[in-house]
Design brief:
This protein is α+β, with helices and mostly antiparallel strands. The protein folds into 5 domains: 58 residues, Orthogonal Bundle (Arc Repressor Mutant, subunit A); 60 residues, Orthogonal Bundle (Multidrug-efflux Transporter Regulator, Chain: A, Domain 2); 44 residues, no CATH class; 79 residues; 31 residues, no CATH class. The protein is 35% helix and 23% strand. The protein has a 5-stranded antiparallel sheet. The chain has a 4-stranded antiparallel sheet with strand order 13-14-12-16. A 3-stranded antiparallel sheet has the order 15-18-17, with no helix packed on it. A hairpin with a 5-residue loop joins strand 7 and strand 8. The radius of gyration is 25 Å and the shape is elongated. The two termini are 28 Å apart. The mean pLDDT is 84.
Length: 320
């Protein structure tokens, strides 16, 4: 009987990916058997050490690790942990190593999270969700009066536009906020429309210190013409067009604060420019007509776009 497992066998026995097996070896949890002459096509690991880890896991909840969920959903690992803590992603805390714990996300919880985030990204935000053209105000926009009464534009339960007065901790109708409290906008919310180069998708949990400073910055620098904002039960979903702008003034947040909330795309500062890049690049694929017609049909059956269907199919191949 062999005293070792192949990398594939280790992954199957521990219910993890091959990449995770590789990291286990790097972390010293299991040892890779040396093969200086490359006599074996696949990496091998000592059977006894793998069996020990498998036994330790017996009785523990099974499922995906946060790192695996992050990869599948296209999120950062930091974001997954934040969503676990705020309840957006359901997970079970389990022992991990010496006096440490980690989380396990069940298949059912993963499917719910996948549906939640995909619906957030694929369903384009409508302008009317975050912009009231009648009064020219935007959701969460910052207002202030001459005597320093601060307010944020918000909707009530009936979706009426108004203000939440921070000092009084109450909501008032738009007209009352303007006439009685003398509220005025603290910045202009309109900018020229940027050329389309894709979007960056961001999800910020409510209560995060960075949320409102980032929204203020977006409205003032990008304008409502180039962003989309959707209020959700536990978070705020933001899409912003890819592009760049000169940072004439310092931004009211650090880039490190922002990075954990970016789901797709990148944001960076280079030589005084804030550069926003989409994770997507437009490309052309030439397919046989019969294949293209079949793919279109399958996409229509699932009520998704042709691009989404092709992307998912490619992801399945790459992750197998």
């Amino acid at each position: 009987m062999n005293e070792w497992y192949t990398q594939k066998e280790v992954a199957e026995k521990l219910a993890v990916s091959k990449a995770t097996v590789y990291h286990y070896a790097k972390q010293g949890k299991i040892r890779k058997i040396a093969d200086p002459h490359r006599l074996h096509r696949e990496a091998r690991y000592y059977k006894e050490e793998v069996d020990r880890i498998a036994m330790e896991r017996e009785g523990h909840p099974t499922g995906m690790r946060p790192s695996e969920v992050a990869k599948q959903l296209g999120l950062s690992v930091q974001s997954v942990y934040k969503y676990i803590k705020d309840g957006t992603i359901q997970a079970v805390e389990v022992p991990f190593g010496d006096e440490r714990t980690t989380y396990v996300i069940s298949d059912e919880a993963f499917e719910k999270a996948k549906e939640y985030f995909q619906s957030s990204e694929s369903d384009r935000v409508r302008r009317s969700e975050f912009y009231d053209s009648t009064n020219d105000i935007a959701l969460f926009q910052y207002f202030q009066s001459s005597d320093s009464i601060a307010a944020r534009v918000m909707k009530d339960e009936e979706h009426n536009w108004g203000f939440y007065l921070l000092e009084y901790q109450k909501w008032v109708e738009y007209k009352e906020g303007i006439e009685k409290y003398g509220l005025e906008p603290c910045y202009e919310i309109h900018k020229d429309t940027l050329d389309y180069k894709g979007y960056v998708h961001i999800q910020v949990s409510k209560g995060e210190d960075i949320l409102y400073p980032f929204i203020d910055f977006l409205y003032e620098s990008w304008g409502i013409e180039n962003v989309g904002i959707r209020e959700q039960e536990q978070s705020v979903y933001i899409s912003m067009k890819a592009g760049e702008t000169s940072l004439l003034n310092s931004i009211p947040f650090s880039l490190d604060q922002m990075l954990p909330f970016i789901q797709e795309g990148t944001i960076e500062i280079v030589e005084g420019l804030l550069i926003v890049r989409s994770a997507y690049r437009k490309t052309n694929l030439e397919l046989p007509i019969k294949m293209l017609d079949k793919v279109k049909e399958l996409a229509e059956q699932e009520n998704i776009t042709l691009s989404q269907w092709v992307e998912r199919a490619i992801n399945k191949v790459l992750s197998s």
